[in-house]
Each structure stands twice: as structure tokens, then as C-alpha cells.
Design brief:
four-stranded antiparallel β-sheet; alpha+beta; 488 residues; 31% helix; single chain; 18 strands
Length: 488
Amino acid sequence: MRKFLSFGLVLVFGFVAAAVPANSADKLGDACKSVGQTTSVKGSTWICTKSGSKLIWSKSSKADSYDAAFANAFLAEAKRNAAKILEDAKSTANQISNPPYCSTSNSRAFASIGSDQSTGLRALVFENPGICDISVRASAAFRCDSPLPPSRNTVTGTGVFPLRAKEKLIVSYNITKYFPQVLSDCRLLTGISSNLVNISRDGQQPSVMTLTSSYSGNFNQAEAFKRADQYLKTEKARADKIISDAKNPTSILKAWKAAVEAKRAAAVEAAAAAKIESDKVAQDAGLGKNCVPGTSCLIGSTGPGGGIVFFDAGSQQSWGRYLEYAPKDWYGTKYVDYYGTEGKQETWCNDKHIFTDSIEDNPFDKVIPGTEIGAGKANTELMLTGCSYKPSAASVVRAYQGGGMTDWYLPSKAELNELCKYARRQNTGNPKVRCTDSAEQRQDIPIAWFWSSSQYDSDYASMQYFGNGNQRATGKDNFKVIRPIRAF
């Protein structure tokens, strides 16, 4: 009796043990069966990972786990790819197991003028690069042996002849063999009987057309069937591996991570594109509207000086809050230099005097006196005081009185950078961000080098290229585009 009781307990225990799901885990770190296997424990997803030589349960991040729907879709795609491989393999195997198909549509010859290496003579070259034997009709220009001028003793001859597979035929001294009517045509043209005919040098190129095509090579049917069968086996093994890999948790996980990353990258790209569009909307929000000082002026609105508002400091500063630039026709007449650069150009100052403290070509995260937002007006005043040569960049912008305003000036380095960003349809307002190249450029501001009022030393001043935003120092006696701005 005791023996049967023990045996019954063993059966019950075995039944209970078998009923426990294989993927149930008591705690993280317990052993699991296969890499990529997942389970849900109290709302958390665990995944089977390899740690050293052991497989253990570990917590899964969103990028480290996949669901059944993804695995099924991944396998379905693999099956479609495998089916396409087998379909293409059958078509290719059929071609391998049959003699090559030759027709005029898939057999082509080429004609050119070259030279006969054996004779050194000018030659017609006809070439059949294919595996089919063909017959062709060729046409070429020939010069008859005659005292007539070359322009009057040229005939066009035609000939029909075979070209075997891979053959290159060179016709030089044996012309009448391939073009038998040439001598008769020359006699009719010149009235002279002669056996001398040469290839014309008037530049006319020969032509060739395929008439018939056939395969006459050796074809081993048994060997062809063998190669076709081997090809089918190789492609079937490749298709089987694709399906096998699609069932492998490691491969599925790799594909899942790639899909997550692609989705993340697409989201980042879409966000960047959306920001660019929102920046454009923000920049264009004020177009066609007038800015009234003392109110919130929109970027793109018309300022009190008749210019376009391109910068908002966000709050009132010692120099003001907004910056506007003079409109495209500020100088009165359209100005285009010898190289086609549009916009009024002037020298910074031919005197090269020192008007402000010497500055460096600074990065945008470092504020140096004479370069910052709001410094352009003071820089321009010092330029007017120290530069005796007229006209200069400072004197020309100060003479401008758009909107009845007399406080227009040459922008500082940072102010010019903000104008460059507005011109390239980039968001303005953060002086630490440098102007860069972009797909769009506003039509009222040319792509050119512009002067700033910030000098580098006694001989050089800072300028900026509105094509890619690069800034550099150059000699003050150079002519560069200038555009007045003003603060309010």
C-alpha cells in the first residue's frame, strides 16, 4: 500500500510541475531557456538574456523587447522574400538548362573608325560582343581614287556579311570583299576605272544593323541540367536560411531594435522639419503688418523706419528691443557690381585708423565689446569720427534716412549674424547661434559678403558671407556689401 501511495505522489507532483508555464520566473536572475524569450511579471516585461555562459531573466526596455505581432510580421516578410528568391531561381535555372536564346533584339553589333595595327592603315572596325553569331548590314563612306577634290569623290557603300560571336572584324585594305559595290559606285561617280578605294576622312561614322542571329556554340545539355539543379539548391538553402533567421529570437530582436531606431530617427527628422516650418511661420507672421513702438512687434513686420524687423531681444534693453534692416531699394537705384553681386558696396575705411579697442574673431559664446547686439550704433559713430576718407561704409549708411529716421547704422558682428539668419530663413533671437547654410534665401537680401562695424585690428574689420554664415576679417579698403539697420 505504501509503495502505491509513493508512486501516486510522484505522478501528482509530476503533473503539477508540468502545468507550470515554462516562462514563469520567480525573480530576476533566474534561469531561462532561450535568448529573446519574454514574459510578463506583475506588469513588467522580462526578457531572456545571456550573462556569461548562463541564460537569465532580466528587465526589458522598450527597445529590447518585441511583441508577437512584430515577430509574425517579420516572419511574413521573410517568407515573401524567400518566395521571391525561389521564383527568380526557377526562372534563372530554366535559362541555364536551355541553349542561349538568340534574336535580333538581344544581339547587337558596333561600328567605329580605327586603325589596322598590321598595316597601319585607317580601318573600319565592326564588333560583335555577344554569344550569338549574327549577320549584319553595314554602311560607310569611301573616297574614290580620282583627281577630283575629296568633297566630290566620296560615295557611301553598303555590305552584308557575318560576324561570329565575340568577333572583332577590321576592314582596311580588303574593302571590296565586304563592300563589293563600292568600285562600281566610284566608276559611276568619277568616270574612271580604278581598283583603289580608301576609307573617307570626312568624319562620317560607319553604321551597322543586325539582320539575323543564331547560336552555334557547343551546348552540353547534361552539364546544363546539373548546373541549373545546383543553382536551385543553393538558392533554396538561401531562402530557407532567411526563414530560419526570421524565427530566431536574436534576429527578431535585432530587427526590432533597427525598426525602433528607424522610427526614432524619423521622428527626430520630422520634428526638425516641423521646427523649420514653425520658424518660417513665426518669421513670416509679421509680413505685411506694421510694427508700432511700445507694442509687441512681430518678426517680419514693417518697422518705424520702413525696414523689416528681424530681431527681438524679448525685453527692453539699453539700446532698445528690436532691430530692423533697410529694404532692398534703400540706396535708390539697383546696384550690381562687375561680378553680378547685387547690393550697394563700399570700403569700410581707407584710412585704416583704430577707432575701437582691438577685438578677436571671437566665438559666439564669448561676448567682446564692439561685437555684441546693440554695439553697431556706437561702432558707427566712432567710424564717422575717425575715418576722414569719404565715402565710407559708415558715411553711406548714416546718410540713409528711411522713414525719416537719421539713426541708421552699420550692424555689429552679432547683429550682422542675426540678419544673416533672417536672410537664410533661420530662427533669430539667440546671438550664440551662428548663421549657417540652408535651402532657402530671402529674395530681398543677396548672397554676398557684408561688412560689419566690428573691427579686427587697425587694418582689418569683420565681414560675413550670407551664403553659409562664415565670418572672417579682411582689409578695410576692400569693397563689400553694406545694409543699414537701426534699433528701437
